[in-house]
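Known limitations

Structure tokens in this collection are predictions and should be treated as such. Users comparing against experimental data should check residue numbering before alignment. To illustrate the layout, the record for Transposase (putative) YhgA-like domain-containing protein is reproduced below. The input appears on top and the generated tokens appear beneath it.
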Amino acid sequence: MAHEDWADRVLVGPRLADACAAKAPRLISDAMDDIATPHDTYFRESFGRREIAIDFLRHHLPPELLAEIDLETLEISKDTYVSADLRSAYSDLVYRVRHRDGPLTIYVLFEHKSSPEYWTLLQLLRYLAAEGDAYRKQHPQARRLPPVYPLVIYHGKGRWRAPRNFHDLIAPLPTALLPFVPRFTYALHDISARTNAEIKGAVLTRLVQLAMRWIFSKEPLARLGDLLTLIEQVEDRTTALEILESLLRYYVQGTGRVEERDVRALLEQNPTGDPIMQTFIDRYIEQGRREGEAAILLRLIDRKFGPPSETVRARISSADPDSLVRWSDRILAADSLDAMLH
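Generated tokens:
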């Protein structure tokens, strides 16, 4: 089978904010896509980074497989085979690498529920069939499909105890039926079952896995502080900034117990000597102060003039610091909302 020419195709989550953006991003973001959960978004933003994917696979693929592939040829496909009704529970990424006999597709299914999914093998069977069907349509002259290496990454609260062999999902089989039932398994990377020391890889790879491992921690804010220390070890500061933003958003949205004000306090307690990172942190903290001032002004308007309209709320929420100060001074003497704002 001839090698295919691959286009540059990358599957990632929402674009991260530019390091020099005038306004720091809110962690409760409207940028989440319509199928994403915090776990899904963080996974895509992290494992959708080529350097993390390569390092992770280098540490977790079987040695005999690593000997036959070239990880430096790895590309991340835009393809996804998770149906829309399951995307709140699953996220998949498709990695492709060069193999000595042709392209090898590495299919990664990320499972992020708090308990193992019993029917994962059945879902994988559907995904493998969908991948094969897509390949034959893209390569109508092909008569063989590229091999697939299914890898499940799990980080739930408990150990993964779901069946690992497809025959385990089938009722006891008469010998005569054995050849007619699919037989396959999958590789499992159970982050929850590993100690912190067993999380292997470069700083970035360990950081994203520890973030997933600790997302269910009883002390998520303390664990976030530990992760901020790891970010300081990331040599590429632009990458560090992108990881920082993704991480902060994940812990605010994914834990349900970390508030933005907690994050700002944590950042104030842990200043960095890096100018780019510190600029982001300063803007983020300043935005928090501005949002707090806007919230206070809206409460004062509500008490003096009645509930403000959505238009007024939007105007005040997006106002610059000088306008907020000016309006706060005017509200004391203004006899109407219009007089205060104009």
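For this record: The beta strands are 69-76, 90-99, 102-111, 148-154, 187-190. The chain has two domains: 38-269, 275-341. Please report discrepancies through the issue tracker.
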